[in-house]
Amino acid sequence: MKLYFSPTSPYVRKVMVLLHETDQLQDVELLNVATTPISPAEPLLAKAPLTKVPALERPDGPTLFDSRVICAFLDARGQAGLYQDGARHWDVLTLEALADGILDAALLITYEARMRPEDKQWEGWADAQWDKIERACAALNQRWMAHLSGPLDMGQVAVACALGYVDFRHDARGWRKGNDALAAWYEKFVGRPSMVATQPPA
After folding, report:
1. Which of 2, 116, 134, 164 has a beta carbon 3.0–4.6 Å from 57's, enabling a disulfide?
2. 2-78 fold
């Protein structure tokens, strides 16, 4: 299999953490590609029409894209059980969706500052995206700590990767304020070898 990736992509990091946690890293060839909404990577055009990373090329089927699809595939392939069974399965999916919502909002803030011409940037838009992140972090801190502190699952991985990206690109905005339990959980979780190995480059 071939994984099209970028070392700074938080969506890619979710996949990489899963590969480390499930001992499948040796089964995947990593292909570093630079792609943005306004400058799509040529190698991805024939594989993944949205030209986003991560994208997982398989020898026996179409290329998979979207981190949630790839993670579910690799979890099933490795029989890892990171999506859990029964009622907890839906909690894991909800947590992963919430984490990806944090990533979506954080990435939009990044794009607003880095890709939109300065005279067209809208501070109110970026602030509205940050409001989403604050609400999500508050919800995690208030409602999800018991789950986050339980057995490892993909919801936890997704949340940690999301918070890591917010630190990476928007640390000055301070997501930890008022979220002491979440911050303490995160500081412990990022010490996992899989998280250490997948830190984005400085």
Report:
1. 2
2. Glutaredoxin (3.40.30)
